[in-house]
Amino acid sequence: MNIRFMSLLAGIVTSVLTTAITLEAQNMKNQGLNTRQQSIVPIAAFTASGDLEKLKTAINEGLDAGLAINEIKEILVQMYAYAGFPRSLNGIDTFMGVLKEREQKGIKDKTGREPNPVPSNKSSIELGTEIQTRLSGKPVTGPLYTFCPAIDQFLKAHLFGDIFGRDNLDFQSREIATISALANMAGLNPQLQAHLNIGMHVGLTEAQMRSLISVLEVKVGEKEAANANELLNKVLSSRTK
């Protein structure tokens, strides 16, 4: 009798634990971006569009949300690859002004770590090719790169090797920044759709993507959010097939 009771009790405990683990996994899957990740969205979007007043607000909110100084630097540096040096430089100048104002108010923001040195046994193009393949899930080829090999080399060596190879900002954060920037620039739907796909490939969930788009809607604009949402639906449909 006792043996039967203990066996039944063990079965109930196992069932309860299994259900709890399943629910926890489901809850994690349904979670959106955390506050720190959400704060990346307007920083990248307003750097890309050149709206420095809104960028100033976004940077303050990002620092308050826990972004480190060096993480914001990385976002602003990365933006030059998508929006150009002038927008990136203006963003960095705005950031310097924000830090000065916060320092005068007695606010001490965390610096964050510097990136580790890139591997000494690999060239930028070797490292960049590895990172690009990892982000995309397969080697990136196509007629555009055959027609213009220089742009293929620059993408691999500089964007993915020199910039994405800096490891003090994780790939998910970099993709959140890239998606947000592309969403706030006109005429870039092919690139935006590609990076929505890459974002999911590096582990961003549908719930996190929807969360990103919600931040776009609130902070940036309904039109930009609606466009990104339409493209995300295409990506999700394609990935399901």
How would you sum up this structure in a few lines?
With 241 residues, this protein is an all-alpha fold. It has 13 helices and no strands.
Topology record:
Blueprint (H helix, E strand, L loop, with lengths): L1 H29 L4 H15 L2 H13 L4 H10 L1 H4 L1 H20 L19 H13 L6 H5 L1 H15 L7 H13 L5 H13 L4 H15 L1 H19 L1
Helix pairs in contact: 2-3, 2-10, 2-12, 3-6, 4-6, 7-9, 10-11, 11-13, 12-13
Description:
By secondary structure, the protein is an all-alpha fold. The protein has 13 helices and no strands. α10 (171-183) packs antiparallel against α11 (189-201) and α12 packs antiparallel against α13. The longest helix has 29 residues, at 2-30.
Number of helices: 13
List SSEs in N-to-C order: HHHHHHHHHHHHH
Q: What is the arithmetic mean of pLDDT? A: 91
Name the structural class. Answer: mainly alpha
Fraction of residues in H or I helices: over 70%
Spatial extent as radius of gyration: 21 Å
- Residue ranges: pLDDT <50 for 5 or more in a row? 18-28
Quick one: how many beta strands?
Answer: 0
Major sheet size, sense and barrel closure? none
Distance between the termini: 53 Å
Please report which band the strand proportion falls in: under 5%, 5-15%, 15-25%, 25-35%, 35-45% or over 45%: under 5%
The general outline is globular
